[in-house]
Design goal:
This protein is α+β, with helices and mostly antiparallel strands. It has helices at 2-15, 18-22, 24-33, 38-49, 52-58, 62-73, 77-90, 93-102, 105-111, 148-154, 156-161, 167-190, 200-204, 212-217; strands spanning 115-126, 132-145, 220-231.
């Protein structure tokens, strides 16, 4: 089961420990897609569902773990022993030491760098008499991390689920959130007044936006915020 051990080790690096308990079926599906024999994948699935991996992670003897597997899942002695060996190899002292040393390494690296998000948005301005004017805008948001503790709080659920998130993973999470905020800001701005034509210089030209205060509360410092917009409509 060396291939299974290696697969699960890499899966933990990518998705974190919590996913083994929280979504064992996703683990099973990924194993099958990556060429692990379906029968073996099913054995891993049922043992994950019963928490066998947690026993191995906490530490126990191979005999005790094999006896647990055999009693819980009614597999033969050899299969139980093979599964026990696989889990104990996966949660070896060497692997646990490596994982512990790497926890939040991506987060720490993220906090040391400067990042830029490029956003493009579009929505309709619903003007008087039911006329719609399609609007577009774009913005560039450059930021650094000013308050690491605040950002850790903001990302607490993601870091708990997977403390091995890379700096690019974290950037991707923030890109999604910032883009969503800008989409909302843009729609709210366009809907503010039926009679007042949207002015994109007013929206993004002063180097700020409505959501900047929220981003600051996440621990981010906005180094630069620039943008432009356009309206393309026919009356």
């Amino acid at each position: 089961m060396n291939d299974v051990t290696e697969f699960l080790k890499n899966y933990i690096w990518k998705h974190g420990f919590e996913t083994l308990s929280a979504n064992p079926y996703a683990v099973y599906t990924s194993m099958v897609k990556n060429g692990i024999e379906a029968k073996t994948a099913r054995l891993v699935l049922i043992t994950l569902m019963s928490g066998t991996h947690e026993m191995a992670k906490k530490g126990c003897s191979a005999d005790a773990l094999a006896e647990h597997i055999q009693a819980e899942h009614f597999v033969n002695k050899k299969t139980a022993k093979d599964l026990a060996t696989m889990y104990l190899t996966l949660f070896s002292d060497e692997n646990k030491k490596s994982w512990n040393a790497s926890e939040e390494a991506g987060f720490e690296a993220f906090c040391q760098a400067e990042w830029t998000i490029e956003w493009e948005g579009n929505c309709d301005w619903h003007a008087k008499h039911g006329v719609r004017y399609p609007c577009t805008a774009e913005a560039s948001v450059t930021f650094t991390v000013q308050d690491k503790a605040a950002l850790r709080r903001h990302l607490s659920s993601e870091l708990h689920a997977n403390p091995f998130l890379t700096e690019d993973d974290i950037f991707g999470i923030l890109v999604s959130q910032v883009e969503s905020d800008l989409d909302s800001d843009m729609q709210e701005y366009c809907d503010a007044d039926d009679y007042y034509e949207p002015n994109w210089e007013e929206f993004v030209g002063e180097g700020t936006c409505d959501s900047e205060e929220k981003w600051t509360s996440w621990g981010l410092e906005i180094v630069e915020f620039t943008g432009s917009g356009d309206m393309d409509y026919e009356i």
